[in-house]
Sequence to fold (362 residues):
Amino acid sequence: MILKQKDTRTEDIQELNRLLSLNISSKQRLLIERELKCLLSVNSGENSSAYYLDFACKHSKNWVLIHDLRIEHRGMVAQIDHLIINRFLNIHVLETKNCFHGFKITETGEFLTYYKNEYKGIESPIEQNKRHIDLLQMAIEDRNLAPNRLGISVSYKNYVLIAPNAKIDRPLKHVFDTSNILKSDAYVSHIEKEMDNLSIIGAFALAPKLVGTDTLEEFAQKLIRLHRPGKYNYVAKFGIDENSIQAVQQQPALSLVTTIKENKATVTKACEQCGVEIEEKVAYYCRINKTKFNGKTLCQTCQKSPAQAPEPQLAIESESKKDSCESCGTVVDSKVVYFCRLNKKKFDSKILCRDCQLKHSN
Fold:
C-alpha cells in the first residue's frame, strides 16, 4: 500500500525563480542558481527511487510505503525520503542520494563524489540516516504510537538508495561494510528476497509477532500525522533586501530552463502496446530497461504482460525453455532461477516456480 506521496516543491522552485528576477548581486545569484539546480537534481533522484518503490509496494498488503516524511520532535528535524514498513513492524528508513557520477567510499567510511574532474567530500548518508532513525524512534516511543501487544516490537533498518545507473566504488566489506547502500532497483529485489527467505516453518514461528493489515495501516497513518511540511525562507537565507532592489525585466536563462524541466515532468506519453497515457517516470523506467522491454515504452500493466516478449517465435521458445519451472512449465524470472540455484539441495537441483517451491517444501 502507498499511503503518502511526495510533497510537491513547485512553490520553492517558483520562489527561487522569482528571486532570480530581482536585481541581486552576482554572489547571491550564484547561490540561488546552485540551490535551484540542487533542488531539481534531488527531485529527479527521488522520483527515480519512488518509481521502483511504488512498483513493488502498490498492491502489497504486507508492506506500506510512505514518501517524504518530515518530523519535528524535541527541537530537532528529520527529513525522511521514504519509509517502508512490513507486518513484522520492521521499518526500512531510506535515504535517497542523487549522484549520477556515483560515490567513492574510502576504507575509513568517508564519502566522496566526483565533481568537476575531482573528488569532493560529502556528508555520510549512512550517518545522516542514523540521525533520522534516532528521531523517528524517539517520536514513536514518546507518543506511544506502536501497537501495544505482547511480543510486538518495532525495529529499524538503515538503507541508502542511489540511481540505478550510478557507480559505487566500495572498500572491502570486512574493512567497511556498505551492504546497506543499494541501487534503487536492487533494493526492490532485496526486500522481495527478504520475504521469500521466510520459510513456512519460520513464518509460523514468527506468527505471534505478525500484525494484521489494518493494524499496520493504522500505525503508518499515525506516523503520517507527524508530518510537518517544511517552509523555506529563501529571502533570509540569501540575505536579500527586497525593499531596496528593483526587479529586472528580463527573466534569467536558468529560470526558463527550470520551468521547462518542471513542465516536462507533467508531460504524458502513450504506451506502445495499449495506448494508455503514462507519466514521464514510467517512460524513464522503460528507457533504462530497454533490453527487458525490447526498446518499447510500456505502461505498468503492459510491463507485466507476456505480450511484451520478443516477436520471433524462436526467441520466445528459447527464453521459456531457459527460464521455466521444471515441474509445471510456468515461465519464471531470473530472481526465481537465482534463488533455486542457491538452494540446490532444497529443490533437488531443479528450477521451480514459487508455487512449486512451496509444494516441494511440503
